[in-house]
Automatic annotation (TrEMBL):
<protein>
    <recommendedName>
        <fullName>Peptide methionine sulfoxide reductase MsrA</fullName>
        <ecNumber>1.8.4.11</ecNumber>
    </recommendedName>
</protein>
<comment type="similarity">
    <text>Belongs to the MsrA Met sulfoxide reductase family.</text>
</comment>
<feature type="domain" description="Peptide methionine sulphoxide reductase MsrA">
    <location>
        <begin position="62"/>
        <end position="212"/>
    </location>
</feature>
<keyword id="KW-0732">Signal</keyword>
<feature type="signal peptide">
    <location>
        <begin position="1"/>
        <end position="32"/>
    </location>
</feature>
<feature type="active site">
    <location>
        <position position="69"/>
    </location>
</feature>
<dbReference type="InterPro" id="IPR002569">
    <property type="entry name" value="Met_Sox_Rdtase_MsrA_dom"/>
</dbReference>
<dbReference type="Pfam" id="PF01625">
    <property type="entry name" value="PMSR"/>
</dbReference>
<comment type="function">
    <text>Has an important function as a repair enzyme for proteins that have been inactivated by oxidation. Catalyzes the reversible oxidation-reduction of methionine sulfoxide in proteins to methionine.</text>
</comment>
<dbReference type="GO" id="GO:0008113">
    <property type="term" value="F:peptide-methionine (S)-S-oxide reductase activity"/>
</dbReference>
<dbReference type="InterPro" id="IPR036509">
    <property type="entry name" value="Met_Sox_Rdtase_MsrA_sf"/>
</dbReference>
<keyword id="KW-0560">Oxidoreductase</keyword>
Length: 246
């Protein structure tokens, strides 16, 4: 399957929005503006974590989050200062099933995820979680995000070590206790079993295809929300993943 065909197949599976092939960019932008103004999934202002990681001498650590379609989550974190790269991929299942067509069936254990490589001297794991919960996705939606349904679109965190697990579980408890969302947080803190990069045509998708109706409606408002809610962390020029080795 060539890249164009792969993207089209991916869009067909993604949602009914993705099948509106004749939708023009202007109309999509109008819908995006309406969605961010009226949707219950609009960014939620939340406090930073009380407990956070202790930065050491290292300048490179990784975080793995799952929050629905990886196009939008990757696109958000590519605009965050202190982030060195973001890969879209799969986590939660076995290596042999880490392929889009297989994961899309919803029974592999995988979730569409992102692996964020970041500099902990510039941004902490807790601050990444704050962006994840408030801007990148809705943590109250169980096994779906917006138009995408299935366990592959679940909200999940895959800690790389005990400190990340402690920060994540503590933060979820903090936010639930504060009742900052309209419903309980359903985000799962799962064991990290490995991260498997997605196919090249999925990488940097938001930046490369901003006029796709799905992106304009569902994902560009998240980037706008990041800029509005975290101006001190927003970078205008996204850091893109180099895909030659994938």
């Amino acid at each position: 399957m060539n890249t164009t065909s792969a993207i089209k197949a991916s869009l067909r599976k993604r949602s009914t929005f993705a099948r509106v092939a004749g939708c023009v960019a202007i109309a999509a932008s109008v819908l995006a503006a309406q969605r961010i103004a009226n949707s219950a999934e609009a960014p939620t202002k939340i406090p930073p974590p009380v407990q956070d990681e202790q930065a050491g001498a290292t300048h490179s650590e990784t975080a793995v989050f799952a929050g629905g379609c990886f196009w939008g989550v990757q696109g958000v974190f590519e605009h965050v200062r202190g982030v060195k790269q973001v890969a879209a991929g799969y986590a939660g299942g076995a290596a042999g099933t880490a392929h889009y067509e297989t994961v899309s069936d919803g029974d592999t254990g995988h979730a569409e995820s992102v692996q964020i490589t970041y500099d902990p001297t510039q941004i902490s794991y807790g601050r990444l979680l704050q962006i994840f919960f408030s801007v990148a996705h809705d943590p109250t939606e169980l096994n779906y995000q917006g138009p995408d349904h299935g366990t592959q679109y679940r909200s999940a965190i895959f800690p790389a070590n005990a400190q990340q697990r402690s920060v994540a579980t503590s933060y979820i408890a903090q936010l639930d206790k504060a009742h900052v969302f309209s419903g309980p947080i359903v985000t799962r803190v799962e064991d990290y079993k490995g991260f498997y990069p997605a196919e090249n045509y999925h990488q940097n998708f938001l930046v490369l295809h901003p006029d796709y109706p799905y992106i304009a409606i569902n994902d560009l408002p998240k980037v706008s929300g990041l800029k509005r809610m975290f101006p001190e962390l927003y970078r205008n020029d996204p850091v893109l993943l180099k895909t030659s080795g994938l």
